[in-house]
């Protein structure tokens, strides 16, 4: 059943660690069936309850899944083998349009803001017991959220959007609970949910955001949380429209106990209006990160939510990192206050590159999606073949498998640094690699 690998251990934690090591090393492959609990207990000379506890640990970590009498098996995409490993190694001389990074040229200079923040800290160092949130950052963030129609709530700071999402999920859900997520969606999020012991429920989407009927089915089936990307959805570029927001709010009104998490990582690089969903459910959180507009290494995100959710996250944060560096918070506050990034200029730059590629692909019979953000999503009939042929032609694109569960195959192209004279050759290479396909969505 397990080939040459032998599970070891006497305690539940040791048995679980033995399985997890084997999965990480590739000795136990995705889909491989594990021994029945009583059989493994007899082999190890332990109580069956010990093996049951080990399997429970592995399920909560997203390493295995159990299907009743059909037994337990390694997940098809275990948390141990993250989606970031589903990528193309870029040989020398190949153009990399797969990374998802912003254009460094469009990021603001940080030296002056950091110098001012450090000088302020020299005058009045932040010490244990001080406020966790920089008051000026909270003031600026709250004013911007008010302008965009996000409901009132306390402000907190985390180390990026994913950190916030993990903390909010942990504050409300227990292992085994289901979370409705976009499909295709952010690969890191699709890894995170099972890694913390939760189950993903895919929700289809189109250019206007999650499909209301899919959301309704997921919530009626018992999903306890819904995660929505408001703008610059990764990988499709979808933007929640006003009409779609109304439809989703209508669905959420029938499920007031669902935890709603909204990710607005496109803030600062998108000039399309925000149509937030928050305020319909009792528990909600809304996050804005600085990564795409100001630089991934700032590792900062500001979020708000209902008072209970924010208080739970702050409380758990105090027991771990304590707070996010106030120096970094002061840097972001200064950048926001000084208008270091003009969203209209940045958005227009990215839009010009997206639109040019989408138009060039359309001329060649290829349907592509990308209303906002840094990426273009292209449905393809043969994902593996398309990626391989494009690599041979000198272009490294991201395989859609990194971003999807039940959605049809596709590839993601990052346009952030795409030059005007590269658009035609790239579109031609894509057309040659995938051939014209019927116009269709990505759900």
Could you characterize what this model shows?
The protein is α/β, with parallel strands linked by helices and 443 residues long. The protein has 15 helices and 16 strands. The protein has helices at residues 12-25, 37-44, 48-60, 111-123, 135-147, 161-172, 187-195, 212-220, 242-253, 291-294, 307-319, 326-338, 343-363, 383-392, 420-434, and strands at residues 64-66, 72-74, 95-96, 155-158, 178-182, 199-203, 205-206, 209-210, 225-229, 259-263, 283-289, 301-305, 375-379, 395-396, 398-399, 410-414. The protein has a seven-stranded mixed beta sheet with strand order 4-12-11-10-9-5-6, sandwiched between helices. A three-stranded antiparallel beta sheet has the order 13-16-15, covered by helices on one side. Helix 4 (111-123) packs across helix 12 and helix 13 packs across helix 15. The longest helix is centred in the C-terminal third of the chain and has 21 residues, at 343-363. The protein is globular, with a radius of gyration of 23 Å. The model has no long low-confidence stretch (mean pLDDT 92).
């Amino acid at each position: 059943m397990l080939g040459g690998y032998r599970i070891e251990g006497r305690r539940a934690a040791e048995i679980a660690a033995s399985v997890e090591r084997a999965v990480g090393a590739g000795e136990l492959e995705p889909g491989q069936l594990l021994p029945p609990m009583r059989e493994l207990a007899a082999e190890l000379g332990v109580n069956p309850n010990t093996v049951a506890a080990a399997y429970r640990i592995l399920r909560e970590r997203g390493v295995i899944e159990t299907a009743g009498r059909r037994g337990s098996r390694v997940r098809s995409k275990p948390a141990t083998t993250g989606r970031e490993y589903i990528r193309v190694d870029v040989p020398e001389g190949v153009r990399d349009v797969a990374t998802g990074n912003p254009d460094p040229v469009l990021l603001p200079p940080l030296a002056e803001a950091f110098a001012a923040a450090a000088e302020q800290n020299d005058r009045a160092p932040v010490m244990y017991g001080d406020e966790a949130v920089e008051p000026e950052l909270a003031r600026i963030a709250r004013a911007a959220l008010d302008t965009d129609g996000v409901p009132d709530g306390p402000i907190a700071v985390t180390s990026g959007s994913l950190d916030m999402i993990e903390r909010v999920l942990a504050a409300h859900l227990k292992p085994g609970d289901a979370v409705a997520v976009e499909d295709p969606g952010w690969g890191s999020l699709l890894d995170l949910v099972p890694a913390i012991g939760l189950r993903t429920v895919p929700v289809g989407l189109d250019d206007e955001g999650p499909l209301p009927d899919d959301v309704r089915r997921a919530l009626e089936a018992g999903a306890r949380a819904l995660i929505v990307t408001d703008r610059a959805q990764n990988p499709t570029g979808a933007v929640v429209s006003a009409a779609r927001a109304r439809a989703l709010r209508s669905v959420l009104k029938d499920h007031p106990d669902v935890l709603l998490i909204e990710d607005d990582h496109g803030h600062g690089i998108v000039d399309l209006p925000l149509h937030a969903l928050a305020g319909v459910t009792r528990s909600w959180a809304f996050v804005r990160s600085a990564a795409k507009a100001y630089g991934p290494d700032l590792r900062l995100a500001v979020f708000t939510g209902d008072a209970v959710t924010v208080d739970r996250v702050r409380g758990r944060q105090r027991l771990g990192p304590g707070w996010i560096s106030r120096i970094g918070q002061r840097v972001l506050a200064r950048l926001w206050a000084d208008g270091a990034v003009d969203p209209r200029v940045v958005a227009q730059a990215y839009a010009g590159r997206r639109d040019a590629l989408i138009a060039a692909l359309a001329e060649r019979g290829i349907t592509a999606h990308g209303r906002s953000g840094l990426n273009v999503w292209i449905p393809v009939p043969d994902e593996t073949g398309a990626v391989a042929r494009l690599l041979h032609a000198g272009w490294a694109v991201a395989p859609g498998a990194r971003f999807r569960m039940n959605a049809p195959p596709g590839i993601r192209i990052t346009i952030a640094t795409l030059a005007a004279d590269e658009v035609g050759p790239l579109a031609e290479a894509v057309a040659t690699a995938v051939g014209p396909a019927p116009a269709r969505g990505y759900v």
